[in-house]
Design a protein that fits this description.
The structure is a single chain. With 408 residues, this protein is α/β, with parallel strands linked by helices. The protein folds into 2 domains: 196 residues, Rossmann fold (3-Layer(aba) Sandwich); 157 residues, Rossmann fold. The chain contains 15 helices and 14 strands. It has a 5-stranded parallel sheet, with helices on both faces. Helix 2 runs parallel beside helix 13, helix 5 packs parallel to helix 6 and helix 8 crosses helix 10. The longest helix is centred in the N-terminal third of the chain and has 23 residues.
Amino acid sequence: MSTSHRMTACALACALSLCAPAAVAAPGLSDQVVKVGVLTDMNSIFSELGGRGSVVATQMAIDDFKRDAKPAFAIEMVSADHQNKADIGANKAREWFDTQRVDIVVDAINSAVALAVSNVAREKKRLLFATGPGSMRLTNEECSPYTVSYTWDAYATSRPTVAALTKAGTDSWYFITVDYALGHSIEQEAAGAISAAGGKVIGSARHPLSASDFSSFVLQAQSSKAKGVAIANAGGDLIGAVKAAREFGLGKAQTIVPLSGTLNDVQAMGLATAQGMVLTEAFYWNLNAQTREWSRRFFEKQKKMPNLIHAGTYSAVTNYLKAVQSIGTDDPDAVMKQMKSVRINDMFAANGHIRDDGRMVHDMLLVQVKKPSESKEPWDFYNVKAVVPGDQAFQPLAESRCSLVKKP
């Protein structure tokens, strides 16, 4: 072999040896790093539902994935407070996508914020896994190939609850509803379930977001004589509405039903106030050995038990990272295709799968809040009454108003 040929061969061999590790380290990754953005409410009415807990859950998912899967790519996290303002949320998402190369946004609690961020994610062809909000518009009129509604929605938390209670005799209803996207969606879905179960809606009152006084709305509900008073709001508003309802004695003659209540809401109210309420939850820390093990690790970091949003955020980030590693790329279209092709079974989801409309379908839990005398330890709040299969808990695909769903 000539000297020039030997040099060429040597150069080629060196080039291949240098290129090979890079290909193994991050095959198909856009910038050698997978970056997750947690966009949430850090300081206002939804901060207990999402907030720092979602940041903790995301970091746990990243740390656990690094430990167990030993990925060849780097993983980073950024977080921000959207202040419950759609323009701030959309601008932050745009900044992350444009200048910080964020691959996926999670949480996005507050439906108005999520809808705005979803539009940015569609424009930039990046992913939003909305683990915080519950608006049905995310998977219906404003569905996107880049958005997944992962944790819960107004259909799944309201319809199973009111349907069960209506069939059991609570057949007349009055709504106290927050006047923005989430409240409207919850009331619409619950009213449909009440009608289908043979009940009727007598009336409703709408209050502003972050209402300071619920007395007038509660008095309207009381004077309606409806058997059930449905609270169609979330976070601090839900806590305030239920406390006011108890103070005015609604629980004596009328059933108070929060339609998006969570573990944190029960903790804030106290069992004496919340006892007997029926809820539909996506996650309960004390459900089984797997949920308890993960939740106690979360508690060590947050000093509070996780709710459905924290658990859902951990699950979403973990399964996203698994998909990236499995196919060797962070290309959003490829990742979404991969995630829609597999079943999700973990500490959060049972029988989970992502549909064409962006809905992650999974089993839900119908629970009743315990009496104080029934609780055996802190955060032991629920008696699980039934497991609602995902295909019954969530809106049937045949009823979808999403343009991505192929109709027969």
